[in-house]
Amino acid sequence: MIDAEFTQPQEEFRTTQERVYYQVRDAILRGQFLPGRAITIRGLAEQLNCSPMPVREALRRLTSERALELSDTRRVTVPTLTREKLDEICAARVALECQAAAQALPFVGESEIATLRALDDRITAALAKHDIQEYVTGNLEFHFTLYRLGRPYIILSLIESLWLQTAPLQHLVFQRFGVQELPDRHQDLIRAIAQKDELRVRTAIRQDIEEGLGSISAEELLPT
User: Domain named HTH gntR-type: which ranges (predicted)?
Assistant: First the structure.
């Protein structure tokens, strides 16, 4: 069942089409659809209590953003990844997210740091409880809360697109192996942010991304 939470700021949606798009996108980011799974317009429309038309448009938009893919048989599925593509996404995420975090630094004060610490406490608690969904949600909110501070509108849309492509596969790995062994670089990142140390901020972001995506083994990937 698709949750009713959204990753974008809470606000009134202008159309049903817009609401459905964000709900499906949010479900992908939170790992509610797994790689290789087919997505049906009728099934989503029933879950979201709407007609097929806004679901069809949402799937079209998400396919254009590479969060979903259209097969030769016209089935919409959650993509699987090759090692080559995952490595490319990892490099792109490092470049973009390091820049977004650096842009956020001038806008971080005590209240923002307190918010990040509270989100990291939530992540730590989820790791201790082996709560996959809570970990995924907390990690998502931690990163995007930081990145939005610098108002990197173009960069942020690119980062969201890359997260959409890797989130289902990461969630599959978490389901198989749990989250208790995942490294947590957020404390290092928060300390670097508090000290306005851009080099250390970039290092912590890079390590967080590379270690997180590095947890995906060859068994979860398609052959190149």
Answer: 14-81
